[in-house]
Amino acid sequence: YGIAHHCTIALNPKEANDPRCLPVLDDLPRYLVKDRVVAVGEIGYDSMTPAEDTALAAQLQLAADHGLPALVHTPHRDKLAGLHRTLDVVRESALPLDRVLVDHLNETTVKAAKDSGAWLGFSVYPDTKMDEARMVALLHEYGPEKVLVNSAADWGRSDPLKTRKVGDLMLAEGFTEDDVDRVLWRNPVAFYGLSGRLALDVTSADATHEGNSILRGGE
Questions:
Q1: How far apart are the C-alpha atoms of 183 and 190, rounded to whole Å?
Q2: H and E: helices and strands count for the chain
Q3: d(Cα 3, Cα 207) in Å, to the nearest integer?
Q4: Which DSSP helix (H) or strand (E) runs through 52?
């Protein structure tokens, strides 16, 4: 269908607390060399436990070792303290903050994250985290530079089209089409492009996978 599949991969912060999952850390290098893995993530904190400390530090090092950026989850509780702890760990690592996307930001954490030089991630949901109105208000206040907006299709109530709804509301509230393109396309491409692995030309006529064209019916 002409979809260029890319992924991030990591031991999630929540699962880092389960000893049965820790062997994932040893297996990750096998996958981080794959040509469509564009970041290590999501990593970071859920409950800010010692096990999460260990997993975060180890995976930041893996990102540095493999030349990949990192997608970092900030905790849902005690968010500002969690953000500061996250930034401290990144600063102690071999991975520069300008290769880190700090996700699940909100009104409480966005300024400190922006001041750090990291990329700014916002998860937009129907009931939890950010909604499109709050997201657009933050864009008015802080601007679109290094901002990425994501949605979800996970185990809770979510809406993958929340990114589109953010774009529609941006236009309704005076942002330009270029602003929308920047937040919803160019910024993600710039961040994940830091991996050197982002393939954007898969719809060209000569694009193939294992010798087979993705185009159908002689298109």
A1: 11
A2: 8, 8
A3: 12
A4: helix 50-65
pTM of this prediction? 0.89
Q: Could you state, in order of their start, the residue ranges of all structural domains in the chain?
A: 7-195
- The whole-angstrom separation of Cα 67 and Cα 35 is 12
Q: Are 89 and 107 in contact (CB under 8 A)?
A: no
Distance CA(127)–CA(31), nearest Å, equals: 34
Question: Which residue is listed with tokens 């297996």?
Answer: 27
pLDDT in tens, the chain (219 residues): 567 789 999 999 999 999 999 999 999 999 999 999 999 999 999 999 999 999 999 999 999 999 999 999 999 888 999 999 999 999 999 999 999 999 999 999 999 999 999 999 999 988 777 899 999 999 999 999 999 999 988 777 888 999 999 999 999 999 999 999 999 999 999 999 999 999 886 555 565 666 666 555 554
Query: How many C-beta atoms lie closer than 10 Å to residue 105's C-beta?
Result: 27
How is domain 7-195 classified at the architecture level of CATH?
Alpha-Beta Barrel (3.20)
| 33 class by beta-carbon count within 10 Å (0-12 exposed, 13-18 middle, 19+ buried) | exposed
